[in-house]
Amino acid sequence: MTTPTAGPDGLVIENLSVRYPSGTHAVRGVSLHVAPGHTLALVGESGCGKSTVAMAVLGLLPATTRVEGTIRVAGHEVVGASEASLRRIRGLHVGLVAQDPMRSFDPLLPVGTSVSEAWRVHGRRPPRDGVATALGALGIADPRRRLRQRPHQWSGGMLQRAAIAAAGAHTPALTVADEPTSALDADLADTVLNALRATGAGVLLISHDLALVARHSDEVSVMYAGKIVEHGQAAKVLAAPRHPYTAALLAATPRPGTGLPAPLPGAPPNLALEPTGCAFAPRCPLADEDCAENQPPLHHDVACHRVNGQAA
Amino acid sequence: MTAQGALRAVTTTAAGHIGIGCATAVVAVIAAGALRHASTDTVSITDAFRPPSWAHPFGTDDFGRDELARVAAAGRTSLSAAVLVMAIATAAALVLGTSAGLIGGALDAALMRVTDVLLAIPNLVLAMAVIGALGPGFDHLVIALSVSYVASFTRMTRAFALSARHRADLAAARLAGLGWWRSVLGHVARPVAGQLTIISTLSFGDVVISIAALSFLGLGVRPPTPEWGAMLSDSRGNFAVAPWLLLAPGLAIVLTAIAVNLIADALREGEPA
Amino acid sequence: MIAPAAVPVLDLEQVWVRHPGERHLSDVLRGVSLRVHAGEIVGIQGPSGSGKSTLLRVCATLQRPVLGRVRIAGREVPRGWHRDGKVMPINQNATGALDPHWPIWRTITEPLQARHHSDRLTQAQRREIADEQLRRVGLDGLDLDARPGQLSGGQCQRVAILRALIAKPRLLVADEPTAALDVSVAAGVLHLLADAASHGIAIVIASHDRAALQVLCTRVAHLRDGRLVEHAGDRSEPLASR
């Protein structure tokens, strides 16, 4: 995968490595690129490191974590940046839509006040009726009256759209959406994701829901044990997966007419220990001795010895 | 919290250290007094108002009685009264508060109105009213003070029980067929009792001081039972002649209150969030 | 497998539930009727706020309807019906459904302490039973003395299911059991539920995962505006009739 140089690009990550003080090596050399207007989904199960990547992009990892590599948002370097530079990047160049909308809003403030905070934090004022217009565009009925209400009077789906409006306040080049629909009912997921993509920014979508990803992303990167194991066009990867883990994930997703989905054997590895060989080998139906001894490099967008032939 | 957790909390924090220090001092005095041969009631007018010496480490009082023995005996009285008050209040609150919180309805409403009234009256005033009705004496003192502490502890227990009412583990236990009391005791009572222990430890110092105050006013234990507050009251007039008679019981009250409060603080710090 | 003449395990008849203190316009459930027989899995779908959780609470006998009748294995609730493990719950937030202070061996075997079980088990016996149960669901590596806070969401949910199954229920009421779980762990839970049904346990499951309900259930019902409308799932018997 080519890594373009900095410019008005959405997001460029090169060889990101994140180690927590406890010793857990959560992200082990991840590279990806999100172009403006495109949606890249980062999928994987709990503990694979995808949320860590999201937090790293926003510079929100605790100070005690060791972060190596490059993260460039609209040309601005995030790794190693000072808190002051990060504050200038957040909101202006990258927005965040977090998992639980109820937690993103101060329960005591009217929703309108919280949303307009996105402007005020950077010393600007929202354009006249700007907040109401943005919410109306996202499908909130009667926005002017609604803005005066408190978060508990809004549904989860509506709040999440308000969060999207706030994240898009300064039309950033990138929006990071960390499991934006996990806390919502499935019928709201599509509405929320359409709203997200309508902003025009590049979207880094963190999700464990493969069906959702298939409907709403252009590209997908599958993560396992801190590494990207497969990457490609969303429709292609999810219809015809090449990496055994991606195939197993798809087999574990319920699909009407195919009987009960098949769970994966075993459990994800403990990331405090460096794996010898491929991290997925213990659970992989195709694994052989080579897989157990040598870590497969990402080659042709797949990190698998069996798919790419023997390791060099 | 567990017993080891409590021990760790108390022995590793600064508050715990000082608290244990003070408590040790008080316990030492009480033990020393108990081991001595001098009785608290041996009257010897010729020995009255002797300053501290080897024979009488805390001196003698106006009747020639050994002050150390009296302070120690008074300590046993005050502390046992305080322990009884806390035990009664805790036990009653556990039963009443848990029932009110979990059953709700008329029981809860009635209990809350009663505690409302009791809590509107300051502890000491309420205690004085009860003693006024029943008369002074050790037993009546304990009952009088228990009343207001039962009221405040019950409210707190009820709050814990309310938050536990809709817990899924309680529902599962009930659906499985476990009896009401059994499920409650297993799932609700334990954390509630834990919180109650901390609260009662925090209140212990208050109770000791209240006992001393009531006795100071002559409303507590009856003479000749020694009590710190009563001893303070008795020695007021003789301050110019025998200041040690005020210092000993006064210090005892202060050290006990400090010890209990600091230990309770240490326990609270150690309590997992 | 389903004997049409058998008494249904769960029989809701014209059940109405109202939010306390509100007018009839905001009835949560309006005349809902539902029958579930042994071995059937009925899925409940519906938009947020449609009353799915309320319906499940009524099924689990944790909430009484304002109108209508609820019968468990023919006996009307609350009259003439005893809580004895016939109905057991499975919740969305599994970690919150387990007592945070209890080790898992104690939680799993808690239903065995109920009055209607005549034998009093020792701690050692309970630990052995718990060990055996954990092995059945592939959690044999788990420490018996672990507390819920030390386990993952998926492990907690499997412990909760074991607790429910050990009571030998006739009916399992599962409210969003796979909502917070990874797809692979969720698949394992679906297998556990299907396995329970194959042993004759009736299951009512609410979920917003339509695909999961379709592959797991014999019937799927939609709850909309307080009313229930049914259709067939993938696992329906071709000639099932009620």
Largest sheet of chain B: none
Identify the biggest protein-protein contact and residues per side: A-C, 29 and 24 residues
Regarding quaternary structure, what we see is heterotrimer
Give helix and strand order of chain B, one letter per element, not per position.
HHHHHHHHHH
Task: Determine the N-to-C terminus distance of chain A.
Answer: 18 Å
Structural class estimated from helices and strands of chain B = mainly alpha
State the helical fraction of chain A: 25-40%
Which shape of chain B, going by the Cα principal axes? Answer: elongated
Which architecture of chain B would the CATH scheme give at its second level?
Orthogonal Bundle
Task: Summarize this structure as a short list of keywords or feature phrases.
heterotrimer; B: about 270 residues; mainly alpha; MetI-like fold; 10 helices; about 0% strand; elongated; C: alpha/beta; 6-stranded mixed β-sheet; 4-stranded antiparallel β-sheet; 10 strands
Describe this structure in words.
- The complex is a heterotrimer of chains A (312), B (273) and C (242).
- With 312 residues, chain A is α/β, with parallel strands linked by helices.
- In chain A, 31% of the residues lie in helices and 20% in strands.
- Chain A is globular, with a radius of gyration of 20 Å.
- Chain B has a single domain (3-36, 57-269), classed as MetI-like (MetI-like fold, Orthogonal Bundle).
- In chain B, 75% of the residues lie in helices and 0% in strands.
- In chain B, α2 (14-35) packs across α3, α6 packs antiparallel against α8 (180-216) and α8 runs parallel beside α9 (228-235).
- By secondary structure, chain C is of the alpha/beta class.
- Chain C is built from 6 helices and 10 strands.
- In chain C, the strands form 2 sheets. Chain C has a 6-stranded mixed β-sheet with strand order 6-7-8-3-9-10, sandwiched between helices.
- In chain C, α4 packs parallel to α5 (183-198).
- Classes of the chains: A alpha/beta (312), B mainly alpha (273), C alpha/beta (242).
- Chains in contact: A-C, B-C.
- Chain A binds chain C through residues 45-46, 155-157, 184-188, 208-211, 248-249, 252-264, and chain C through 47-49, 152-153, 182-188, 190-191, 194, 208-212, 214-216, 234.
